[in-house]
Design brief:
- The chain has no helices and seven strands.
- A four-stranded antiparallel sheet has the order 1-6-3-4, with no helix packed on it.
- By secondary structure, it is an all-beta fold.
Amino acid sequence: YAGVGDGSRWARWSFPNNRECTGEIYGRWVTYFPDTPWSRSPEAPYTILNNDVEIGTTTADHGRDHGQFVLLGTFDLAPGTVEVVLNDVPTGYVIADAVKIVSHYP
């Protein structure tokens, strides 16, 4: 996890992608203290990269939906490497727990 910050701290997940597909990207975070969701960022920023090119950004409310995978977005993915980056923000704690991609091939 990372506390309130300026975007300079990050967590990065990297996945190999062997062929062109549509990928549903999900994030998961946990609330260590369920009675304090107010301390989690309501706008945790995720950046999606494919072969070092930014293909999308999204935010997620880390004060909600803890302990389950939440859809961050659906993206067209080229063969190569897919990366998901979560940065810290000035609006609360961000929790870097897990990311998964569900691939759908043409």
